[in-house]
Predict the 3D structure of the following.
Amino acid sequence: MSKELAIMILRSSFMYNSNKANFETVDSAGKALTTLGFIITGADATATAFRVDRWGKLLYLVPETFMCARSAFAAMGAKEDARRADEFAKTAHKILVGEDSTYDGSLRA
């Protein structure tokens, strides 16, 4: 898959998140990450816990994609999934940037 197409898919989760479409945000984030080779569990409306079973290719939008999922999970009352999504965002940030002291957990809107 081309980098441009992957970025376009990742941005769809941002659009859903900005419209407060929580289920669509989580679903889109899961699909976007899957296109990058991630194996994700629980990025749907089931009660399955959200987790990364295998990491895929990291692009600069991946941490924000996890943050969108975090926001959507929090809005749905899935606190544990929101916490995990935040941990994944922080991990992705650390891999991309090389440190995590600049991770603030906020989305660029």
